[in-house]
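Structure representation.

___
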Amino acid sequence: MVTFETKVWEKDWEYILKGNYLNKIIFNCNFNFSKKHVIINNVKNRKLVEKYCKQKIKEGVIDNYFVVEDYESLVLDHFELSADSFDGGYYYSIAELVGIYKCETDYLMHFSGDSFPVNNNINWIKNAIEIMYRNPNIIVANPTWNYNFREAEKESFEQIEDFYSGYGFSDQAYLIRKQDFIEKIYKEKNKDSERYPKYGGELFEKKVDSFMRNHQKLRITNKYCTYISVNFPRNWFSRKILRNNITKKRINQMTEKH
């Protein structure tokens, strides 16, 4: 059983929830998810964003949504963390932890709002779960980022079936076992994890990367599936125009690339 999850905030919620962008993300995963969630964080008009989430529920696109401010205290208490423990990275991290906390399935497939999976009709999620089931030291799986297959291979130290295996973690896209990530694993540090942006402080992905390196936990990255990082326009009028164009033109072009 796998939950799909993405998150929205003030600068991208319209883009993700108003058109069929979210529908495309889910469809392109080529997987029948048991649950589909949206995490809402840091929006000006909560009721308005909730209205569009409720519409997505009505359409059958998602099953539920969660607003971070409703759960952040519970989540921090559960993981024995404080906002200060993120050293400035709290708002970059709390949505992911809420998503893990509210996940009710064995696995969680997370895409950040600006990460778009390219559809090539490969069921990489099913294949990854089978590998993760056989090897408890593999705790993360993901598609390759932005068609950088050579870079993914370079960062790995072995291959397992259709995946590269090695260290590393990104909050842009991750398939995880909930049981691994619901534990209190977010207090560790590792010198190799200092490569993450300084402005993020002790952010979620850096904490996870440190834990993985300290305990020799691995990530597998698919050799053939990829996701792209979408640059949302900052201007609202531009977003309104491009919201329809992205699925009709740009996304179709990128999907046809592979």
Notes: The longest strand covers residues 218-229.
